[in-house]
Amino acid sequence: MEDKRKTFSARLVRWTAELVLVFIGVSAAFWLNNYQQHQEEAKRRDQILASLERLLGQGIESGKTNASKEEQQAATFQHALDAGEMPLLRPFVFTTDYSPGDFATLLQSGGIELLDVETLTALRNDESVIRWGLSRMAHYQKLSDELIVPNLDQDISFFYDPATRKLRKRFEMYPEALQATVKFAHDLDRTHTELLKRIQAERHP
Length: 205
Hints:
The chain is an all-alpha fold. The protein has helices spanning 2-82, 100-114, 117-148, 173-203; strands at residues 160-161, 166-167. The chain has one domain.
């Protein structure tokens, strides 16, 4: 009887030890899986941030160059207008390689789960400024296509009142469009810079 109890106790100890080993093995595998997943997410997060940081840096630099040209163009036209001259109106054209799908693709690729809330907020704010600005540019380009482009062969008096040397009412949108372009460039520079700082703070804490 004593031998049976010893045998049972030995088996119980062995089963318990095996159970503990199984538990440790499962826990270790679970931890390793979580660790690997965390490493993959961290790598993906850094890739997204690095891509955004690079694109924003390039965009800010090229944006400053474009803004300088747009400011000069708007200032030159307004100066001539204020001096009583009647500067020529040219077709208003605004081109961009921006695609609304870029933002959605970024979020769908894991950005919305991996990026900080502050970064996502700055990203959405930047996106909002871009969409609003492009909407304004499209509005002015449409007016230009309808009012200016078909009449480029007209005499200057078609666009100006010779008596006052001021733009006729329907063409007052032209200097507004030039100023709106400058404002859009400044707004983009501001939101791009804010987003870049936020990304750098998240990527290099």
